[in-house]
Design brief:
alpha+beta; two-stranded antiparallel ribbon; globular
Amino acid sequence: MKLSQRKFFPAELEALVAHAGFRVTERYGDFSFRPLDGSSESQVLVCEPVAKFPRKRSISR
């Protein structure tokens, strides 16, 4: 099985979350709820939807 991994800068990940219709409410550096800082190997985001009904997206090709 081939696995791939991508690293995201915090601002880049927040932009992706916003584009999906969510907002970040909390951000941690690991699953033990330590603060996110320069030494964190992970980003754990707690998010909530911005609107009750997410926007509809059209697929263009």
